[in-house]
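> call design_seq(struct)
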């Protein structure tokens, strides 16, 4: 399952595997930078972490 959340500052792809054991967040900012983050914790936490990675 692949879901996409688009905000003005960040595009967020959530990849959920069939066995639910592993989730990955792939973020892409306007500058074309990308970051893959294993999904642990809630979504807002992952977004803030990925934004810090882009800073």
């Amino acid at each position: 399952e692949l879901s996409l959340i688009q905000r003005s500052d960040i595009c967020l792809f959530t990849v959920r595997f069939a066995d639910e054991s592993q989730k990955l967040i792939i973020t892409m900012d306007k500058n074309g930078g990308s970051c893959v983050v294993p999904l642990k914790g809630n979504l807002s936490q992952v977004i803030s972490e990925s934004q810090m990675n882009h800073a």
